[in-house]
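=== Per-residue structure ===
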Amino acid sequence: MNINNSQVMLIGASGGIGQATAKALAAAGARLILVGRNQASLSTLQSELTNSQQHQILLADISSPSGILAIKQLAQALAQQGQAIDVLINNAGYNSFALLSQRSAQQIEQELKVNLLAPMQICQALLSHLKQPGYIVNIGSTFGSIGYPGYTSYCAAKAGLQRFTEALDRELSHTGIRSFYLAPRATDTALNSQAVNRLNQQLGNKTDSPEVVAKHLLTMLRKEIPCKWIGWPEKFFARLNQLFPRLVAAAIDKQKESIHQHLNRVKH
């Protein structure tokens, strides 16, 4: 697709990946609708974008019905004005690093709601108001393909998001709307706790900058790539886990002492 002059709704715009994506899209000529919960953060981001005056802000909490409704109403109004959205990017995310036995019911519910249920509801709300051809990009995670200790509910949510995206793309075949899935590996954002950062350093896991993820996202849109994993060897292990899960389980099992060491620090 041609990003220049396109209208893009970016959910979770004020986070690390969201900000980098907004700046990359604006520099490529897109007009943005920045969706998030913090007015100050969104306003600051808007002021930093290329052609800042052509972008707009929408305050919405996607974990609430009122937030989903606000997104739908804006998309509907734009479509009626002949300014239908070309691209919807579901980028909002939430996770916590803890054993399942240490999690509260509220934490589990929040991870599933923000990472899976809300993107599904937003897609449903906007389907009738997207331009055709139009594009949906759901931001997932390598953990959607590899079950990893300490991230049980997050892995479940992102795995669900991947299958949802795939099913939706097939469901929308011949409508002119495509549904894409992008899976970053560890990324340097505020979602990572100190324990997670220390674990990644100890295990030698590579961490990408948000700008790297944004670059991959723009490539995905320009080349219309339906599914993309970022990073090596994470991309390899994601594929390997589909074919030979015992091999991946054995590799993770060698890390269990380090993983539990950092999980115990979180607990205390």
Q: What stands out?
A: The first strand starts at residue 7 and ends at 11. The chain has a mean pLDDT of 92.
